[in-house]
Amino acid sequence: MSQDRTIERQATEAYCPHCFLLIETDVKGAWPPGPQRCPHCKLMIGPGRARPTAEAAPGARGTAAGVVAQQARDADTDGRSVSPDKVRAAIRAVAEKLGSRPERLLMVDYQQRAAKDRNLPSLTEVFAAFGSWKRARRESANTA
Questions:
Q1: How far apart are CA 50 and CA 52, in angstroms?
Q2: Considering only CA atoms, which of 74, 87, 83 is closest in space to residue 42?
Q3: Element (H, E) at 90
Q4: What per-residue confidence (pLDDT) applies to 78?
């Protein structure tokens, strides 16, 4: 019982149970307190259903990848554009940090890093520059 109280007082991070992307930092106890939409995949998260880590079973992280990709394709870039060179460099940098090859980097892994690091092009900017995640990865690997 005292262990449960200790866990509730410790601040943790909250990750979406669908796309496993970071939603909130410094949460205490079960999160969210009420139903909430994930800002990344837009799927509903029930009360207390957020995950404390981004760890997921193989294949589970792709659950909402299609939703995230469609959202990025449909988003308005407000006239902002990022050069394809900057996008390729960002994909290579994230892949290297994760110990992956650029052509094998998962979109949700890139999105997780881009959500925390504002210096990385957003997924919307990646889609604006290349039209698809696969093409961006492929070109990042070919020009490495």
A1: 7
A2: 74
A3: helix 84-98
A4: 60
Q: What is the pLDDT of residues 86-113, one digit of tens each?
A: 999 999 999 999 999 999 998 888 988 8
Task: State the residue for tokens 């992956």.
Answer: 100
The strand ranges marked E within the chain are 11-15, 22-28, 36-37, 44-45
pTM for the full model?
A: 0.61
**66 touches 74 (CB < 8 A):** no
Nearest Cα residue to 129 out of 116, 118, 140:
140
Q: CB-side exposure of 139: number of CA atoms within 13 Å? A: 18
Residue type, 51: R
Q: Quick one: the chain helix, strand, coil %, rounded to 5?
A: 45, 10, 40
